[in-house]
């Protein structure tokens, strides 16, 4: 079973030549990700060198003028997007139309109407989008000779391979729970993103983990705003055979005030952390009030099921 992306998948980086693109392309290369080029129409034809980026050796990547050119020459199947918000819609649409099958959109601050457009287009074209406004996707190597795949900004050195899956609406809380459970390990960690409209929902991530033989239990991190956690809980109660443990951020958040993410806002008395906690616990999903407590609950669940 492939978790979201196959090991060794050829990847391009849209916006690679910007500061964030350069920084995180170097990180992804060092993690073993098979990055085969960048895309920036204004810098097409340039070569960018990344010193000691792969197994201690320098890596030089070509900058293509378009995604279609990059796909034709490199066979790229995935893209990571570090393009500024006002250009992000065009960048994602370009990647979809070029035949890219997995697009990880790191960019924060994309207008909701733009996200709605490219998420709908991706659904019609059979393309998986992760994000926007997310830390990305990390898969851990399944064999000794595998590299895994790091697409985005998730730190790769804090966890190793293990039986847990993780899906989160929060970036930094993703890293914290990874650290709290680093001794157990993960098959994959997916940052779904905190915007009102995202390409891969909590429920869709649970579906992938449910169908993966190596994943034995799942950590789900939610936050105030929207109903994604309730939707995921309802699906899990009807279809999930593996245990899910959750953490909901924002128990003390005031109503009407946006907290961090564009979608993290309690409106009309709905979307509170307490509401979500009650909905999840009603279908048997245990919820921690802190990341540390959530990790301890997961340890109890694994011990009780001899995982």
TrEMBL record:
Transmembrane segments: none annotated. Residues 4-110 form the CoA-binding domain. GO terms for molecular function: nucleotide binding; succinate-CoA ligase (ADP-forming) activity; succinate-CoA ligase (GDP-forming) activity. Keywords: Ligase, Nucleotide-binding, Tricarboxylic acid cycle. GO terms for biological process: tricarboxylic acid cycle. The keyword Nucleotide-binding applies. Substrate binds at residue 175. It catalyses: succinate + ATP + CoA = succinyl-CoA + ADP + phosphate; GTP + succinate + CoA = succinyl-CoA + GDP + phosphate. GO terms for cellular component: cytosol; succinate-CoA ligase complex (ADP-forming). It holds the Pfam family Ligase_CoA. Pathway: Carbohydrate metabolism; tricarboxylic acid cycle; succinate from succinyl-CoA (ligase route): step 1/1. CoA binds at residues 17-20, 43, 106-108. The active site is at 261 (tele-phosphohistidine intermediate). Its EC number is 6.2.1.5. Belongs to the succinate/malate CoA ligase alpha subunit family. Heterotetramer of two alpha and two beta subunits. Succinyl-CoA synthetase functions in the citric acid cycle (TCA), coupling the hydrolysis of succinyl-CoA to the synthesis of either ATP or GTP and thus represents the only step of substrate-level phosphorylation in the TCA. The alpha subunit of the enzyme binds the substrates coenzyme A and phosphate, while succinate binding and nucleotide specificity is provided by the beta subunit. This is Succinate--CoA ligase [ADP-forming] subunit alpha. It comes from Bifidobacterium catenulatum subsp. kashiwanohense. The gene is sucD.
């Amino acid at each position: 079973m492939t978790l979201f992306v196959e090991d060794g998948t050829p990847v391009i980086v849209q916006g690679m030549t910007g500061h964030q693109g350069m920084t995180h392309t170097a990180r992804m290369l060092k993690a073993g990700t098979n990055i085969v080029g960048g895309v920036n129409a204004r810098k097409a034809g340039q070569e960018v060198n990344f010193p000691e980026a792969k197994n201690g050796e320098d890596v030089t990547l070509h900058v293509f003028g378009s995604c279609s050119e990059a796909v034709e020459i490199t066979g790229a199947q995935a893209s990571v997007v570090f393009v500024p918000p006002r250009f992000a819609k065009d960048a994602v649409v370009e990647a979809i139309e070029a035949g890219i099958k997995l697009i990880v959109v790191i960019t924060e601050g994309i207008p909701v109407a733009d996200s709605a457009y490219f998420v709908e287009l991706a659904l019609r074209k059979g393309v998986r989008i992760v994000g926007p406004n997310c830390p990305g996707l990390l898969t851990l190597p399944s064999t000794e000779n595998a590299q895994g795949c790091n697409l985005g900004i998730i730190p790769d050195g804090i966890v190793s391979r293990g039986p847990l899956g993780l899906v989160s609406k929060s970036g930094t809380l993703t890293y914290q729970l990874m650290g709290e459970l680093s001794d157990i390990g993960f098959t994959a960690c997916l940052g779904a993103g905190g915007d009102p409209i995202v390409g891969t929902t909590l429920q869709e991530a649970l579906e992938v983990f449910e169908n993966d033989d190596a994943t034995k239990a799942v950590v789900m991190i939610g936050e105030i705003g929207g109903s994604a956690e309730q939707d995921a809980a309802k699906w899990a109660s009807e279809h999930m055979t593996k245990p899910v443990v959750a953490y909901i951020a924002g128990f003390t958040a005031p109503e009407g005030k946006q907290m961090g993410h564009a979608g993290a806002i309690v409106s009309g008395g709905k979307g509170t952390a307490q509401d979500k906690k009650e909905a999840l616990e009603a279908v048997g999903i245990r919820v921690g009030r802190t990341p540390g407590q959530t990790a301890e609950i997961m340890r109890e669940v694994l011990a009780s099921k001899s995982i």
